[in-house]
Amino acid sequence: MTMTAEEGAGEGEAPGALPPGSVIGILGGGQLGRMLALAAARLGLRCHIYCPDPESPAFDVAAAQTIAAYDDMAALEEFARSVDVVTYEFENVPVAAAKQLAESAPVRPGPRALAVSQDRLVEKSFMAELGIGTAAFAPVDDRASLDQAIAKTGIPGILKTRRLGYDGKGQAPIRSPDQAGDALESMLGAPAILEALVDFEREISVIGVRTVRGAIAVYDPAENVHRDGILATSAVPASIDAAVAAEARRIATEITNALDYVGAIGVELFVERDGSLLVNEIAPRVHNSGHWTEDACAVSQFENHIRAVAGWPLGPTTRHTDVVMTNLIGLDAEAWRDLAAEPDALVHLYGKREARAGRKMGHVNRLRARA
Ligand code: AMP
Questions:
Q1: What is the CATH topology of the domain spanning 10-117?
Q2: CA 162 to chain CA centroid, nearest Å
Q3: Residue 166 CA: which ligand 1 atom is closest?
Q4: Which of 23, 27, 98, 157 has the fewest beta carbons under 10 Å from its own?
Q5: 249, 262 in Cβ contact below 8 A?
Q6: What ranges do the domains of the chain cover?
Q7: Which mutation among 123, 228, 280 tests ligand 1's pocket best, with the greatest number of atoms within 8 A of CB?
Q8: Domain 136-196, CATH 3.65.10.10 — does that match?
Q9: What is the mean pLDDT of the chain?
Q10: 170 lines ligand 1 (CB under 6 A)
Q11: Which of 62, 35, 38 is nearest to 51 (CA)?
Q12: What is the pLDDT of residue 13?
């Protein structure tokens, strides 16, 4: 756990903190919204979930719900007027919607964090401005710019849509020049970015949390394994040197300060073979690779996000045990009976009715386990 010097200084009084009974509006009703609402309830705060999907997992545990589209300005306005603060659980909230909401209620994190994280080109350029390393990259809009990009970054590389990609979707590897045409076609005309393929030693992530007053805490780095582009496990502690862990924390701190950020942020990083770090992407929200904090830390990423957006001081991010978080994807959650009977395993299920392939249905935190 890292706390800045300001942490504690004056934070205890928390002027402007929303009192218990206040309503937190959350855009998005998936599992992240569900876990945020559960954490908020523990603090006596109520959540109003806004989501277009009538079967949203978060609706089961929220005080109020709005079922409407994210571009329904009238519904958004009514929602914003009925809550004390607005936050979100996914990064593809239209920036226009966030700006509109901000006229009626504080939106935390602010629209700038959305704008940066929604577009891979803007995100990587932002990192470059801060002097933070990323994979070599270049914009791609057509065949000519793809050829220029290949000349700049080299191959192998990965062509990705600039916007709306998640869990490895909207990505095409280019291993040899003859694959370039097919990769470009698979972008379906969407603006794209070519990234050099990073020959990383491992992948880690850090979850940072920053308060309205600029106090920052960063959880221990997690070591992440992806399968088919989807997070499979997060193990803590990560097998990295203390210096690498400190650098990951420094990067998260710098990013949150530069964005004047409020709330939890996920920063995904590649660890190169020489120990240097490259940012893969940031998520302006609680993050799947931080689910281990629910059972292995004094206060989870969910509660600390709620605390931050409600203007409260942060709770301790101290980790009290080693842990491995495993996502339950598709039919994995059918093993819930066995998982529930496992000693030192904490099962979390999202209440989703249909288990489709690749769908995150729950996760299990195995305490004292090492990857
Ligand atoms: P993303 O959707 O960009 O987070 O990518 C999902 C996963 O694909 C990452 O966690 C990595 O395992 C892999 N990946 C993405 N970009 C790169 C890259 N430039 N080099 C190597 N692996 C990558």
A1: Rossmann fold (3.40.50)
A2: 17
A3: 2
A4: 23
A5: no
A6: 10-117, 136-196, 200-368
A7: 280
A8: no
A9: 94
A10: no
A11: 62
A12: 46
